[in-house]
Amino acid sequence: AMVHLSAEDGKAEGTDKQGHRFTMLMVDDSPDMCRFVHDYFRGVYNVITANNGEEAVTCLQENDNIDLVVSDVTMPKMDGLELCKYVKSDLRWSHIPVILLTGRTDGDMEVEGLKLGADDYITKPFNVEMLRLRVKNLIEKKESRQRLFREKMDVSPSEITITSVDEQFIHS
């Protein structure tokens, strides 16, 4: 299933204003799950897959353009909670949204994940359309935050003029 959707402003979903594709990192110890997500999203995003948290960390170290991480919670070597904690406590990556997938229905994992800074939580088996929308929302939020930040940084002191309310009133 190739998903080619364009947002209201005409740019394709999954790309920024310059047309660069966003990159998502999918982490799951099930190769089938990785393949499924990769095949579903590859029409929209660059998708990198890893089979556990350790592999995911290597991917983060080797790719400085990962925009979002989707990770299963239960994995060998380094689970999703540890991975989330690792991402969120490193300044290089702490801005990257993390979505955790869990097969468990108990709320403890969710609470734990949210405490560690997870941005969203999806229970398996999940509706892939819901995952797509959550990925899209988180990437858009991240983009607009970064854009605001860049715009703030671009303002030079000479552009900031402080006018009194009276003057503003007269000029309006």
What does this structure look like?
By secondary structure, the protein is of the alpha/beta class. The protein has helices spanning 31-41, 53-62, 80-88, 107-115, 128-154, 165-171, and strands at 23-27, 46-50, 66-72, 98-102, 120-123. The chain has a 5-stranded parallel β-sheet, sandwiched between helices. Helix 2 (53-62) runs parallel beside helix 3.
Helix-strand blueprint:
Elements: E1 23-27, H1 31-41, E2 46-50, H2 53-62, E3 66-72, H3 80-88, E4 98-102, H4 107-115, E5 120-123, H5 128-154, H6 165-171
Parallel strand pairs: 1-2, 1-3, 3-4, 4-5
Helix pairs in contact: 2-3
Can you give me a brief rundown of this structure?
By secondary structure, this protein is α/β, with parallel strands linked by helices. The chain has helices at 31-41, 53-62, 80-88, 107-115, 128-154, 165-171, and strands at residues 23-27, 46-50, 66-72, 98-102, 120-123.
Q: C-alpha Rg, in Å?
A: 19 Å
Q: Tell me the strand percentage band.
A: 15-25%
The share of residues in helices is 40-55%
Order of helices and strands: EHEHEHEHEHH
* Unreliable residue stretches: 6-10
Shape: globular
Distance between the termini: 54 Å
Mean pLDDT level = 85
**Main sheet properties:** 5 strands, parallel
**Spatial arrangement of strands, main beta sheet:** 2-1-3-4-5
Q: Count the strands?
A: 5
**Overall SS class:** alpha/beta
Number of helices: 6
Descriptive tags:
172 residues, five-stranded parallel sheet
